[in-house]
Amino acid sequence: MATGVLRLSDVIVPSVFVPMVRRLAVEKTALITSGAMVADPLLDRFLAGPGLTIDMPRLNPIDRQDVENVSSDDPTVFSTPNKPSTGDEIAVRLSRNNSWSQMDLVRALLAADPLAQLANDIAQYWAYRRQRAVIAHLAGVFAANAAATDANHVANDMTRDVSGSSYTAGVTDFNGAAFIQALLTMGDAMGGIALVAMHSVVYANALTKNLIQFRLDSEANPTIPTYMGKDVTLDDSMPNAGGVFETWLFGRGSVTYGTGSPEIPNEVLRIPGAGNGGGQETMWDRVEWAHHVPGTAYVGTPPKGGPTNAATTNNLAAATSWTRIAKDRRSIPIARIVSREF
Length: 342
What we know:
Elements: H1 8-11, H2 14-28, H3 30-34, E1 37-39, H4 41-47, E2 53-59, E3 86-101, H5 106-109, H6 114-145, E4 159-161, H7 176-184, E5 193-198, H8 200-208, E6 213-216, E7 222-227, E8 230-234, E9 240-241, E10 244-251, E11 255-260, E12 266-271, E13 280-292, E14 296-298, E15 322-324, E16 334-340
Parallel strand pairs: 1-11, 4-16, 5-8
Antiparallel strand pairs: 2-3, 3-13, 5-10, 6-7, 7-8, 9-10, 10-16, 11-13, 12-13, 14-15
Helix pairs in contact: 2-6
């Protein structure tokens, strides 16, 4: 029988551990599993190469307001062709990492399958952090949408704000009329909205009013919450402050994502002298992400390693980091409701 102490470096084989963590993290990310986010191979290829941003030229849909020609039999009259408009969508690289000391992972190492337990714990962490990054990104897109009207957008044309200055039951809180008005920001494309992301406070208030229904899961159990036929995802990292909450509406695939692999995604360092000679091991785990809302572009100047989740200049939640490229609001199937719940 081998002697000694089980160590992180004994448990972790990067070629096994890293893919396990990445797969589990995707499975545990609610916005991905809901269908609001879909994988984009283009973003994967971008993350496999150099650069902090990726340009994605866009050919805008034909403007349905262009008036057609009326045919005639006059050979001297010629039609004038229309020129399709284009835009340049831009996504940004997010390089993130964290580290954990062995002392923080002793419980995991006591599990019957320490590698599986450790991978599960870290996957849970990255799933949560990725979702926070996506929410910060979308907060920035909505903040940019709230800015003054320009050539590509009308201020707040993606938002229905019923929060008011003080709470009034049935008026300022989440309600059916506000939901329909948020759908209406999509015009005749409102049927493309399929998912609702809400804070548990909003969900609980809606549940109390019997607004939430449940559909059957794969085992025929009524466990999947819905509102007006749209699947509901709960996330307490949804923006909220002082009783005012944001609820977001998504079309399926309204956000795309890519996942890359850093040069050294995972490594363990042994420090024998730490703990007065007792020894210490620290593990680092690194990720590369890209998220994109089609029809928008990152217009900040990304710092090395990419933007943070903050609302400060060049970072994800900042209004000045994003601009709309798509001229037709309906081509961006996201919307939000701002409500005051108490």
